[in-house]
């Protein structure tokens, strides 16, 4: 205080003094150094201080940028450079394309001839791929028409040493073969259409190709096929006869199968108008039909009239050799291992192999396995194929790739954020899960225990099934979670060892479906040949489980392949009973050649597929030997010919046979012609014996015979009242 006044001094504001930074203690041993005088100095280790941060702390002011500014500027600069490079590349490609087009135009080569499929299409018999026996069978069938078409003798078949000569060879007045239609069946891309074009041209025919999937009505048969066959060769073809090639005939399912029915009518030489007795015009030209599914419903009525040639997968070595020749001509580098992987991936489809190689050639001059994996083979989606999704699920990212993704996107490299968009863009999650389920037994996960498999089936697969069921019931809001369920396969199955295993397209489900369809068609064909009374007794399940196993054992009796003149009576009786059993059931034996070229007798319909599993048969089922089945087939042909001619040794009717077995029936008394005695109140009316003897019997009532023709299906459009006596 100074005087009477008080002087107040405002205290100074406190100065913020940051706390001293505590250096973390370093546990590493100190360093020792020797001076020039020879003494030692010890240096303690300490951590290097971190540079001051240039960014604002998140605690004081949140950052509005997800990345630093210098990185954003660098990204903008890189984007500008990339756009400039793309423009320069487009300009260079346009100039190169224009120069190539001008060069092709100057050389007289059009742009439509650049497809390798057309460029390397076989032109002669020696260029064909596949089994030579199949090619010879088709050419042999075409040569059997030489007598009818070219008016020259057909070449005689070379008989192998030791082979028996056919007793009753088929003869036709016009020199045509027994089967007037050739049916080529096999998967797409195996060269069926190419084979038909090459062999018909080499045999001297002009090829007329018709696609049955587009022209599937009966008018096509009468307008195009029939007119082309009757017109003969044209001026431009130097008078060559025509050979009709009907492609994709298994797709002719419209119009109540009118196309196939009209084709059968054409080869059967049916008169155009039976009422006017118009003579039929016989078929004088060969017809070749091509199909992918031999047992399609549309081909059921056509199979008995056609000679069937089945195409099998060509040998991988032959196909790899042909692809290697193509790569050498096109200056494309590809080793045998890569081409073998391509053949395995396409399933032997030559067309897909050539298209894939041409696609790779447009981008580089070297073919690698990575390019084959990423190529769009058999898939219409070029952005995200199922093959890429399976590789992403089963093969984890390398550490270098993971760090690269983390540095570029800032993510932690977790698989869920990477796989969910990839799975969602695949477009077919059901097929994707089906492929995962089919591939997991062939993979090598890090944990190969049964517990891991159990977790996989109960976890991701079970969760996906639950979601799929709920979506099918109408709960579409949970559809977005289905991709997350599929990512669980990566956690259980991903391993680096899976990179050496190519994931193939799932085919086990389709193969089982195709086998089930074939078996159902065989069972339906067998039931169709049954009499109506037997068809009503056996359902499809009963036919497969009870009738066919016993029927196979019955039609394979222990017979000896001996001459018919020295057959024992007991064996003759067994053979007669076998023939009487097989004819009503529609069973027969057809001669053909096995894969190794040996002759064999095939059972038609092939009901033995229901008791043979993986090529094995039961011990109590006798092996169907060729000689025994040939004897049975000859006996069946003789019996069928005898029935058609009406020359039967036993002329008794069914009524005579029943009388011999059970005796004659007692005569029935006609009550309408008897006089009744006068009756009283206590007596019943009785017959008068004298009147009964003197009465003349009335003329027998005229009985009529009803004839019914069975058509498969049901219809209530036509009804007719009949009596039970008509059906008895």
TrEMBL record:
Q: Where is the AAA+ ATPase domain?
A: 178-315
* Sorted UniProt keywords: ATP-binding, Cell cycle, DNA replication, DNA-binding, Hydrolase, Nucleotide-binding, Nucleus
* Xref: InterPro entries: AAA+_ATPase, ATPase_AAA_core, CTF18-RFC_complex, P-loop_NTPase, RFC_lid
The answer, when asked if DNA-binding is one of the entry's keywords, is yes
Give me the Gene Ontology terms describing cellular component.
nucleus
Protein name from the UniProt record? P-loop containing nucleoside triphosphate hydrolase protein
Q: Does the keyword Hydrolase apply?
A: yes
Q: One GO BP annotation here?
A: DNA replication
In which family does this protein belong, per the annotation?
Belongs to the activator 1 small subunits family. CTF18 subfamily.
Per UniProt, what is one GO molecular function of this protein?
DNA binding
Subcellular location, record wording: Nucleus
């Amino acid at each position: 205080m100074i005087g009477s006044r008080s002087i107040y001094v405002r205290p100074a504001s406190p100065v913020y003094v940051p706390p001293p930074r505590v250096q973390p203690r370093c546990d590493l041993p100190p360093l020792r150094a020797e001076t020039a005088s020879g003494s030692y100095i010890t240096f303690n280790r300490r951590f290097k201080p971190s540079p001051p941060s240039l960014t604002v702390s998140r605690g004081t002011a949140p950052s509005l940028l997800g990345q630093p500014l210098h990185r954003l500027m660098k990204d903008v600069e890189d984007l500008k450079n990339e756009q400039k490079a793309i423009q320069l590349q487009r300009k260079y490609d346009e100039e190169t394309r224009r120069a190539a087009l001008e060069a092709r135009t100057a050389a007289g080569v059009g742009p439509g001839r650049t497809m390798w499929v057309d460029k390397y299409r076989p032109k002669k018999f020696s260029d064909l791929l596949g089994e030579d026996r199949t090619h010879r069978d088709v050419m042999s069938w075409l040569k059997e028409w030489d007598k009818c078409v070219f008016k020259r003798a057909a070449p005689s078949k070379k008989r192998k040493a030791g082979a028996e000569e056919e007793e009753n060879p088929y003869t036709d007045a016009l020199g045509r073969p027994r089967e007037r239609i050739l049916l080529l069946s096999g998967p797409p891309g195996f060269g069926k259409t190419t084979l038909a074009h090459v062999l018909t041209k080499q045999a001297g025919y002009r090829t007329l190709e018709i696609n049955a999937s587009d022209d599937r009505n009966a008018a096509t048969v009468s307008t195009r096929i029939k007119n082309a066959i009757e017109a003969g060769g044209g001026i431009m073809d130097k008078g060559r006869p025509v050979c009709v090639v009907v492609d994709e005939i298994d797709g002719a399912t419209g119009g109540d199968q009118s196309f196939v029915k009209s084709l059968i009518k054409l080869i059967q030489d049916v008169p155009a108008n039976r009422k006017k007795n118009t003579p039929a015009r016989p078929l004088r030209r060969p017809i070749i039909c091509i199909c992918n599914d031999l047992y399609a419903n549309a081909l059921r009525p056509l199979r008995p009239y056609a000679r069937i040639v089945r195409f099998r997968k060509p040998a991988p070595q032959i196909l790899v050799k042909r692809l290697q020749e193509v790569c050498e001509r096109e200056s494309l580098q590809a080793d045998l291992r890569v081409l073998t992987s391509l053949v395995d991936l396409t399933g032997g489809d030559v067309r897909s192999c050539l298209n894939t190689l041409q696609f790779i050639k447009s981008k580089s001059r070297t073919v690698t396995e990575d390019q084959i994996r990423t190529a769009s083979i058999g898939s219409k989606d070029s952005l995200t194929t199922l093959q890429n999704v399976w590789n992403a699920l089963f093969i984890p990212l390398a550490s270098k790739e993971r760090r690269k993704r983390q540095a570029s996107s800032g993510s932690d490299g977790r698989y869920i954020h990477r796989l969910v968009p990839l799975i969602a863009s695949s477009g077919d999650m059901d097929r994707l899960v089906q492929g995962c389920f089919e591939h997991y037994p062939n993979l090598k996960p890090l944990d190969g225990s049964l517990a891991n498999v159990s977790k996989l089936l109960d976890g991701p697969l079970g969760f996906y099934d639950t979601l799929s069921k709920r979506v099918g019931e109408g709960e579409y809001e949970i559809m977005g979670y289905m991709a997350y369920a599929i990512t669980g396969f990566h956690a259980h199955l991903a391993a680096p060892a899976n990179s050496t295993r190519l994931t193939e397209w799932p085919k086990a489900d389709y193969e089982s479906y195709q086998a089930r369809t074939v078996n159902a068609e065989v069972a339906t064909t067998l039931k169709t040949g049954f009499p109506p009374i037997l068809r009503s007794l056996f359902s499809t399940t009963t036919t497969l489980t009870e009738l066919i196993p016993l029927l196979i054992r019955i039609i394979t009796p222990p017979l000896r392949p001996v001459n018919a003149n020295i057959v024992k009576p007991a064996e003759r009786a067994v053979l007669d009973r076998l023939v009487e059993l097989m004819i009503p059931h529609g069973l027969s034996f057809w001669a053909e050649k096995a894969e190794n070229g040996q002759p064999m007798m095939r059972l038609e319909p092939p009901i033995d597929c229901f008791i043979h599993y993986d090529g094995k048969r039961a011990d109590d089922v006798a092996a169907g030997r060729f000689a025994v089945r040939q004897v049975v087939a000859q006996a069946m042909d003789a019996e069928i010919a005898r029935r058609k001619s009406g020359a039967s040794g036993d002329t008794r009717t069914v009524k005579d046979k029943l009388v011999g077995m059970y005796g004659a029936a007692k005569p029935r008394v006609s009550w309408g012609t008897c006089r009744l005695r006068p009756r009283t109140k206590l007596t019943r009316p009785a017959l008068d014996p004298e009147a009964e003897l003197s009465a003349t019997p009335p003329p027998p009532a005229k009985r009529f015979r009803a004839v019914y023709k069975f058509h498969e299906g049901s219809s209530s459009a036509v009804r007719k009242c009949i009596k039970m006596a008509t059906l008895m």
